[in-house]
């Protein structure tokens, strides 16, 4: 069988960045200006896997095409294969040509399928060697025991150990750095516990061995060996329980301190809020009280000012009215005197005392009527402007 040499397609450098598709993935053009890691060459194992996967896919496609052709009509195969010998053509003349051609083609296809199956088995051994179950040799068992695990949590979590990733974003670097810090903290904690445990065991072993020897010598007994005095598994467990209890007590104390601090902070904020609310209420009450007092004083001052001003206006009006009345009376007196003189001159007849008294009475009655009318008008004006009577004040 002539194997067609397939073109070798290089897989993308990063699973998130496919250069052969329309989706650029996580390709950051700004990150390309930064310094790249030292490992820029692709691993040979990755290239070999990509090549084997491509050949496997092509073989699967050919097998599917052949199965489809077998499931189709036998007449379709008449012109496809024309590489038969003369013996085959003579043999075809004896039997029916269609059945013989079909048998020949089926046998050829079966042979090709068997060859393809063998190739697929070989490829699967390379692609997934763990999928084939077989009993390992004693050499493989020993090698597997001394072999370092391929999947290491520390090495796989690091960015530099990953050959398939050439571009990284700042978020991924921060995330992995955070994981590394947490892992380092856990390891430091474990080392601290182991060192403390080792120190306690050594000190306890020395103290117990010395005390036991002294006691035995004081009692006159033969001291035991150090191996017998060494702590066993139960004593180690007791000591670990004591260590954990002490650490738990310290953690509880720290937790209580933190809770007390949070509680005090919350109570302080709560008291501040209550104080602010009470202060706002007191300010509202005091401001309302002061505003009411100031409004009351303003009203009283306004009424007093109005009363004084209106009283001054009314008195000023009364003075003008009195002056006008005096002028009118003086004019009337002058007119009456002039009338008497004219009457004396015209008639030359003196009047009697009764007539003079009646005229004076009539004049007095007219004056009283005028004064009464003027008084009523002033009272109406005062009642309309001022409701409370205030005695007159002397204003300069």
From TrEMBL:
<feature type="coiled-coil region">
    <location>
        <begin position="234"/>
        <end position="261"/>
    </location>
</feature>
<feature type="coiled-coil region">
    <location>
        <begin position="170"/>
        <end position="197"/>
    </location>
</feature>
<dbReference type="InterPro" id="IPR000048">
    <property type="entry name" value="IQ_motif_EF-hand-BS"/>
</dbReference>
<protein>
    <recommendedName>
        <fullName>IQ calmodulin-binding motif family protein</fullName>
    </recommendedName>
</protein>
<dbReference type="Pfam" id="PF00612">
    <property type="entry name" value="IQ"/>
</dbReference>
<feature type="compositionally biased region" description="Basic and acidic residues">
    <location>
        <begin position="350"/>
        <end position="373"/>
    </location>
</feature>
<feature type="region of interest" description="Disordered">
    <location>
        <begin position="332"/>
        <end position="396"/>
    </location>
</feature>
<feature type="compositionally biased region" description="Polar residues">
    <location>
        <begin position="375"/>
        <end position="385"/>
    </location>
</feature>
<keyword id="KW-0175">Coiled coil</keyword>
């Amino acid at each position: 069988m002539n194997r067609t040499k397939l073109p070798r397609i290089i897989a993308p450098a990063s699973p998130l960045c496919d250069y052969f598709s329309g989706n650029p993935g996580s390709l950051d053009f700004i990150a390309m200006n930064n310094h790249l890691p030292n490992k820029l060459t692709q691993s040979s194992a990755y290239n070999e896997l990509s090549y084997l996967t491509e050949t496997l896919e092509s073989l699967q496609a050919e097998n599917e095409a052949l199965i489809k052709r077998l499931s189709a009509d036998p007449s379709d195969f008449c012109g496809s294969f024309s590489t038969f010998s003369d013996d085959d053509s003579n043999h075809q003349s004896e039997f029916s040509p269609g059945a013989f051609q079909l048998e020949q083609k089926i046998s050829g296809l079966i042979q090709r399928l068997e060859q393809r199956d063998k190739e697929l088995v070989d490829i699967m051994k390379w692609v997934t060697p763990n999928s084939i179950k077989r009993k390992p040799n004693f050499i493989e068992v020993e090698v597997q025991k001394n072999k370092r695990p391929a999947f290491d949590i520390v090495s796989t979590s690091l960015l530099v150990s990953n050959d398939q990733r050439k571009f990284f974003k700042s978020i991924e670097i921060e995330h992995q750095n955070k994981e590394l810090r947490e892992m380092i903290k856990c390891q430091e904690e474990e080392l601290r516990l182991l060192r403390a445990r080792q120190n306690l065991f050594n000190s306890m072993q020395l103290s117990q061995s010395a005390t036991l020897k002294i006691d035995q010598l004081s009692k006159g007994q033969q001291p035991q060996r150090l191996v017998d005095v060494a702590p066993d598994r139960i004593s180690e467990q007791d000591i670990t329980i004591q260590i954990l209890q002490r650490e738990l007590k310290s953690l509880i104390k720290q937790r209580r301190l933190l809770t007390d601090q949070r509680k005090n902070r919350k109570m302080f904020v709560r008291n501040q809020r209550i104080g602010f609310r009470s202060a706002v209420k007191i300010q509202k009450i005091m401001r309302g009280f002061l505003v009411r007092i100031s409004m009351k004083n303003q009203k009283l001052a306004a009424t007093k000012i109005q009363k004084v001003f209106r009283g001054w206006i009314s008195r000023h009006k009364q003075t003008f009215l009195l002056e006008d009345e005096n002028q009118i009376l003086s004019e009337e007196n002058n007119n009456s005197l002039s009338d008497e003189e004219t009457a004396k001159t015209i008639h030359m007849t003196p009047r009697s005392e009764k007539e003079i008294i009646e005229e004076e009475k009539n004049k007095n009655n007219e004056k009283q009527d005028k004064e009464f009318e003027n008084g009523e008008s002033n009272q109406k004006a005062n009642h309309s402007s001022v409701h409370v009577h205030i005695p007159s004040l002397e204003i300069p």
